[in-house]
Amino acid sequence: MTDGSITRFCPPSSVLCLAPSNSFTISVDEVPDAPEDLIAAAQRTHAQLFSDDLGRLVLGRGIDDLEAISDGAPSLRRLPIEVEARMPIGTRDEGYSLVVPTDRSHAVLKANSTIGLFRGLNTFSQLWLTVQGTIYTIGAPVEIQDSPAYPYRGFMLDTARNFFPVSDIERTLDAMSWVHINTFHWHVVDSQSFPLVVPGFTDIAEKAAYSADAVYTPHDVAHIVSYAGQRGIDVLIEIDMPGHTSAISKAYPEHVACADAKPWRTYANEPPAGQLRLASRATIDFMASLLSAAAKLFPSTLFATGGDEINTRCYQDDPQTQQDLAGRTLNEALDVFTQATHGALRSLGKTLVVWEEMVLNFNLTLSNDTIALVWISSEDAAAVAAKGFRFIHAASNSFYLDCGAGGWVGNYPPGNSWCEPFKTWQNAYTFDPMANLTSEQASLVLGGQHLLWTEQSGPENLDSIAWPRAAASTEVFWTGPGGNDSAALPRLHELGYRFRRRGVKAISLQPEWCALRPFACDLNA
Prior knowledge:
The chain is α/β, with parallel strands linked by helices. Helix content is 32%, strand content 16%.
């Protein structure tokens, strides 16, 4: 769902039909040494064109378009795709141009990179509708020049509070690719469970995963990374520390302070309590080795180490930590811990990603290229920018998908979601990435993402809680802010219907009566 897609309110004279499946081709012949993932993307697009079977979202579901179709509307038979130039290694260029004519010539998709071709193929696949077996578009001729406003457009999934099988992650990656999301932020482990099987440290998953089946093996990871890459998506792994690490105590209790301490509210933001003994040299060496082993599973240049919600009382009440501090302050010990663990990752070519507290709440020696995730409030972006760090918008007041579901803590009937109310798609769509920033700070904004923390989510509601809401932020960070939310709603409706046709159970945003009557349910209609 980007402004590169075509609005559906066009005169019937603009109808263009798609030739039958056995007569329509997507050709990669113009791409020198076309990679296998591009060939596969073309094949997926071809299949989607003839399986979406999506009727136009108007009264009659497009039946009124039949007259224009029967009057000899031209048919499109070929879409050649071309790489215009090879970009330098390491440069991500996602722009593309797409031309769909009505003069019976072929369509043309061009880009400077294969990832740009991926984006263009997704847009092309969403131009088409179906009525009584005929596939057509009412937007032709189409000319699109499209490229992202921001380089980072992400989606975060927490697989530690509740486990998600690989098939759920695959389906989520598919949905992400259809809306040009380019980064899967995988919050893979946390205090509740450690499902990642890390070579050399397999005993953590053996003892701290929910079950022997609820793990991600190195083979699973390689498959997910490959599956994502074939769809133009990078996998950003996160191992949060020094907080949120209680699960490690199941295999290595010597490295975790206040593990399972009671009452948990004194020692952690949520149960179970437990934090790494950051002042211990042995723990520092242990984590440097663990992170290095995990990093080798993921080819991305990014690696997230968290750093949020550190509980100081945990360390105050831990005799071992007090002994290890040896007169140092907690900040000084955290700085040594961070430099050592980050240094191990930087030696492997990783750029570090941290939650905002590491920039704002502590005086730490962070590398200048460190990226901050602004999550507590969007208002904190200005403070991060003032310190000169690049950052990603991930604010709970706009992008947390779990907010507003009510409290999940037991024995507390009046409990509510800490980040209530529910964050609507309109909230995300009207977000301004440059709010309270200067023009000189614009280059520090890398983009943004929706996030799903899963205290109250699992495979059973993954699709409905994420989609199509998560597509709203994608349009902000692809097209840029300032879009009209009323005009965006019909696009989002169509996206949701198309997702459901493709097997992603996106939730309805309005009654179907409204979806079939664009703008009729606007507040002042």
